[in-house]
Structures are given as C-alpha cells and as structure tokens.
Design a protein that fits this description.
With 161 residues, the protein is mainly β. Helix content is 11%, strand content 43%. The protein is built from 3 helices and 11 strands. The longest helix is centred in the first third of the chain and has 8 residues. The protein binds flavin mononucleotide.
Length: 161
C-alpha cells in the first residue's frame, strides 16, 4: 500500500490493527433506551476523573444523547459479541436481548459487563469527521471477574485466545 493512500477504507483498515476494548454508551430518554457501541473509548485523566470516546458526526443517535445529564459507559465482556453488534445496528431494536439496568440519573448499563462508569459530558472537541467526547466519571462499579472483549481488525477476540 502506498503511504499516500489515505482513503477512509485504508485508514479504517490500518486503525483496525490497534486492538481496543469496546463500550456501550447508553441512557434512558423519556422511558426509551438509547445507545451505541464504541471502540474508541480511552481513559484520559485521574484527577479530575475523565474518559473519552469519539463519535461520528453523522451519528443519528448522538444528538439524542449529547444533552443528557448522565451517560452510562459499560465496558463489554467476552460474552458480549452479539450485544456489541446489536447496540450498533442501523435498524431494529438496539436493546433486543441486551439486559440493562437504568439508574435514576438516566445512565443505562449493560448487565454482566466489566466496568460501569456513570458519567456526564465535560467537553466536546471537534476532530475531523468525529467529535471527541470527554466525560467526567461520577460513579464507578467494577466487576473484576468479567474478562473484557477485544476488537481487532473488525473481529471480536478474547485476551486468552
Ligand atoms: C465494534 C464497534 C465499534 C464502534 N465504535 C464506534 C465509535 O467508536 N464511534 C462511533 O461513532 N461509532 C462506532 N460504532 C458505530 C456505532 O455503534 C453505530 O453503529 C453508529 O453510530 C451508527 O448508528 P447511529 O447513526 O444511530 O449513531 C462502532 C460499531 C461497532 C460494531
């Protein structure tokens, strides 16, 4: 591949070599669950406690989430291949067969995942065709026994495989 071949397809393929965790970003809006899958999650700061993910500017879902007081971030586990795809589906119920818990704040978490972060939006940074969403952590729940799922070159993998 030529180094000047910076098309979205070649960039996506190159970025795919970087293994990442996968999170569900979810909230309840007027009694309806809203969310999406993201593999761009990055821990950012300990003090203050900040994390981030990048959202496509074309997202139909982000406008429904971006003004909410609280967003739930669930770090998906090995059992969540299906949930990761379902939560990213263009059509149909994104929460079909995905067991969730809703908090009073509106944050929604996927049951059986590794870590739950109750967050609020701290800052939005325009970055090309994506926006970097910086979130402040308000509450943490860790399930140490759940191994995370890893997204690598468009496939879900396990740390042990
Ligand atoms: C494994 C995986 C990782 C994804 N990571 C991101 C991401 O980091 N940022 C993003 O905006 N969309 C990501 N998506 C796509 C979204 O989950 C969703 O499909 C997309 O936002 C289109 O739906 P929408 O228009 O309703 O937002 C990912 C999808 C999958 C399956």
């Amino acid at each position: 591949m030529a180094t000047s071949d910076l098309t979205p397809a070649t960039l996506r393929a190159a970025f795919g070599h970087f293994p990442s965790g996968v999170v569900a970003v979810a909230a309840e809006v007027d009694g309806t669950l809203v969310g999406l899958t993201a593999s761009t999650f990055v821990p950012v700061s300990l003090d203050p406690p900040l994390v981030s993910f990048c959202v496509q500017n074309t997202s139909q879902t982000w406008p429904k989430l971006k003004d909410l007081p609280s967003l739930g971030i669930s770090l998906l586990g090995e059992a969540h291949h299906e949930a990761a795809r379902t939560l990213a589906a263009k059509t149909g119920d994104r929460f079909a067969d995905v067991e969730t818990v809703s908090r009073e704040s509106g944050a929604v978490f996927v049951v059986g995942t590794c870590v739950w972060l109750e967050t609020s939006i701290e800052q939005l940074v325009a970055a090309g065709d994506h926006t970097i969403v910086i979130l402040r952590i308000r509450d943490i729940t860790v399930h140490d026994e759940v191994p995370p799922i890893v997204f690598h070159r468009s496939r879900f993998r396990h740390l042990s495989a």
